[in-house]
Amino acid sequence: MNQVHFGFIGWCQEGTSDKIWGWLTTGAPLARREGEYDISLRDFGRDCYIFWGRRRGAMSFKKTKIDGAIRKLQESKVDSGYDRINIKQLTSMVPDFQERLEKRLLFKILMDQ
After folding, report:
1. How far apart are CA 71 and CA 59, in angstroms?
2. pLDDT tens readout for residues 22-76
3. pLDDT in tens, 69-100
4. 3-state secondary structure at position 90
5. What is the per-residue DSSP string for 93-113?
6. Of the candidates 75, 86, 24, 21, which has an alpha carbon nearest to the alpha carbon of residue 49?
7. What is the CATH number of the domain that holds 72?
8. Residue 39 — φ and ψ, nearest 5°?
9. Which of 7, 33, 27 has the alpha carbon at shortest distance from 87?
10. pLDDT attached to residue 111
């Protein structure tokens, strides 16, 4: 599988809710420095995958394009209580995340969904 580059990873834990939401690309790195969350205009139009799910549950993926809607969705997640986290934090919270990601994402890529 191609290299995975995370555009955003968010985690929300409120009450009984314990969810992860984010988006990623495969292939070429995003046109920004690591740790920045703003989307570069140079990336607009690229394929990306939105992912979401419960921390201990199944992950879902949806193929879309990087555009202003992704930026608005990302901002709405932060406004609704999602904390920005990095991949190290995520894998410490969900040790099998990489395995789950590769399994589900590879299927989506092969199906071009």
Report:
1. 21
2. 998 887 777 765 555 567 767 777 888 899 988 878 888 889 898 888 888 999 9
3. 888 899 999 999 999 999 899 999 888 888 88
4. helix
5. HSTTHHHHHHHHHHHHHHHT-
6. 24
7. 2.20.140.10
8. -90, 130
9. 7
10. 67
- Domain range enclosing 50: 4-111
Number of domains observed in the structure of the chain = 1
Distance, CA of 80 to CA of 83 (rounded, Å): 9
User: C-alpha distances in angstroms, 108 versus 15, 33, 61, 103?
Assistant: 31, 27, 7, 9
Query: How many whole angstroms separate alpha carbon 100 and alpha carbon 106?
Result: 10
- Torsion angle of C-alpha atoms 26, 93, 33, 38, degrees rounded to 10: 90
| E strands in the chain | 4-14, 17-26, 47-54, 59-65, 83-84
* Confidence at 1, pLDDT banded by 50, 70, 90: low
pLDDT of residue 27: 77
